[in-house]
From TrEMBL:
GO molecular function: nucleotidyltransferase activity
Protein source organism: Intestinimonas massiliensis
Pfam families with a match to the protein in the record: NTP_transf_3
Domain MobA-like NTP transferase: 13-166
InterPro entries attached to this UniProt entry: MobA-like_NTP_Trfase, Nucleotide-diphossugar_trans
TM region(s), chain numbering: none
Protein name in UniProt: Nucleotidyltransferase family protein
Gene3D superfamilies found in the cross-reference section: Spore Coat Polysaccharide Biosynthesis Protein SpsA, Chain A
């Protein structure tokens, strides 16, 4: 009796790291949390999920590329990073991924404390667009199907990817997760300090387990 072999769906990931870090005052992708940079934490999360990963760079792109040598990611540079929006960088990132990806993960560079099990739970849901919630607050990463690519390419409205989803009536699955990391970003010095405290709390919990 012949068994039917089911093909594994190809997964892509885009990490948005083109910004100026102007609110932080320092170049946030390279800021450390527990001795590991923000961007390396997000890269490891995406690669650990089995995703072919593209990092969209802009400001200090050469420093980012040098920092991630050997990490198994692709890079695409947004030369207009000072004047473009998130959706423009997303389009560049999607265009740099190999053809044939059925689904995509998307994360900003400054959301570094998401747990791998959260990503696995998001990927287990079958919907055009999936996003995590923590106590009702939406966060990252989001997951979307390749069927949204034509809309992403042509959308000219406001609000980025979230605006596209709302305006175009894309069906959304929301998953409540026990993971504060989905809603913690490091956009300012105060938020970065909160990330450091949260990381230490996680480590203390592991040591006491």
């Amino acid at each position: 009796m012949r068994r039917e072999v089911r093909a594994v769906e190809r997964l892509g990931a885009v990490i948005l790291a083109a910004g100026l870090s102007s609110r932080m005052g320092e170049f946030k992708p390279l800021l450390p949390i527990g001795g590991v940079s923000m961007i390396r934490r997000v890269v490891d999360l995406m690669r650990g999920a089995g995703a072919e990963t593209v990092v969209v760079t802009g400001y200090r792109h050469k420093a980012l590329e040098a920092h991630l040598v050997g990490c198994g990611v692709r890079f695409v540079h947004n030369p207009d990073y000072r004047h473009t929006q998130m959706l423009d960088s997303l389009r560049l990132g999607l265009g740099a991924l190999p053809a044939g990806c059925g689904r995509f993960l998307l994360s900003p560079v400054d959301v570094p404390l998401v747990r791998p099990r959260t990503v696995r739970a998001l990927l287990a849901l079958d919907a055009p667009f999936v996003r995590p919630l923590y106590r009702g607050e939406p966060g990252h990463p989001v997951v979307f199907r390749a069927g949204l690519l034509p809309l992403i390419r042509c959308y000219s409205g406001s609000g980025g990817l979230g605006g596209l989803v709302e305006t175009c009536g894309v069906p959304v699955r929301e998953l409540e997760v026990d993971d504060l990391g989905v809603c913690m970003d490091g956009d300012t010095r105060e938020q970065y300090n909160a990330l450091l405290r949260a990381y230490q709390t996680i480590q203390d919990g592991r040591c006491g387990a």
